[in-house]
């Protein structure tokens, strides 16, 4: 009997391995199209019967014009492997953070599961739902709607007709991460699974805390036991010991949690921290989903660049990447709500040492003119002067741009710069500027960018920054700059960070996703 069982197991293993190899096998172009075709009039008839899919008619027509109306999803035995894989993907749209109902899902099930012979209605239904799937999972909400939310980064472009050709040749691509989608999307997808599992298990309990309460290491309270339980659910602490003592294990968990929410890195537990811990798991899931949507808009080509700069507005963080690594990271200050920093991209061309600040007319009217009305020496007191019809601030330690600025010319008049107001970088909420981005470690950024330029050693940079005379440097290589808005972000090690939605955009985007 034992030998029979072993032999049977070997047969099963070989069978599974054979199926796996078959699934990974590429199909030749001759194998893609069935020898059978259908009438061109079938397309009109199909969309009359399936009006919920009418938006995809132009793509379906283009697809079959290209393939001269041959069947793509059927062979003589029934639906092919690609159709089976697509059916599985469509049935699990929720895993992609898409809250949509699949139209004609029961009809699709009947076509795929019955292994029907080639028929025009079934063929066109699978094609239309392929474009439905691509629209939801790869494309996302339309560019016009994303721009309503202030998103002006270039949207990725992909022909889903051509992409289908790749899937038909190699069906296993449908089970692999799409290289055209920002890699962050797939990290968020994994976190979405985790948080949905937490939700299925009941989420977490609300922690009660007095408005003035504070806890520090060494304290003891029943509230601390509740906090420990909450942190164990999200893995910020390894196990829930049920202890009501604020011991070192809990302190390390608090630091870990604060690090992934942008909070001040101390061990004090305040009501503000508990309020964040009390955010329901359903809200965290929504945050993950809206940021997966933002990833759909962003080309993965960014990560393939030799060097680039990324600013994530809600994280108040800037990162400079070179050869896939981030040798430089800095805290930043971004625009306040009434002067929102714009989400867009540009090419950094210049570094300006000891810069003048040409004061925007909006600030002149709102701040400087009222100041002059009260104090005739206002300009002199602020190291300002008139220059033609404008007002500018002279280079020096009082200059609002600090000692260096980084220019990527754009219509929004936004750039990176130093700042004399260093204390602002120590705050948790760092939305204080008029739209430009203040860099905490501006001098170090200049060092990093000019590292390979022998004409600009660090000593010369220091001298130029403190010379009191404006000096422009043209970069030998332009550096792409991307300003984004992500309220959830996952590190390469799988750690998810949640940031405050400082411009209140998540709820509106969530509404768009559910309406789509």
**Overall SS class:** alpha+beta
Span between termini: 58 Å
- Report the sheet-strand fraction: 15-25%
Number of strands: 18
Oligomer: single chain
The residue-averaged pLDDT reads: 90
DSSP helical segment count: 19
Which bin fits the share of residues in helices? 40-55%
- Low-pLDDT sequence parts: 1-24
Strand order of the largest sheet: 5-6-7-15-13-12-8-16
Q: What's the alpha carbon Rg, rounded to whole Å?
A: 29 Å
Q: How is the main sheet built?
A: 8 strands, mixed, barrel
Identify the overall geometry.
globular
TL;DR?
Helices cover 41% and strands 16% of the residues.
Kindly describe this structure.
This protein has 516 residues and is an alpha+beta fold. Helix content is 41%, strand content 16%. The chain contains 19 helices and 18 strands. The protein has helices at 2-24, 29-32, 41-49, 57-66, 81-90, 105-113, 120-139, 143-148, 160-169, 184-200, 222-233, 248-259, 271-277, 281-296, 361-374, 378-381, 442-449, 458-465, 506-515; strands at 74-75, 78-79, 214-215, 269-270, 307-312, 317-322, 325-335, 345-353, 357-358, 384-387, 390-393, 404-407, 416-417, 431-433, 437-439, 471-484, 488-490, 496-498. The strands form 5 sheets. The protein has an 8-stranded mixed β-barrel with strand order 5-6-7-15-13-12-8-16. A 3-stranded antiparallel beta sheet has the order 9-11-10. Strands 1-2 form a two-stranded antiparallel ribbon. Helix 10 runs antiparallel to helix 14 and helix 14 crosses helix 19. It is globular.
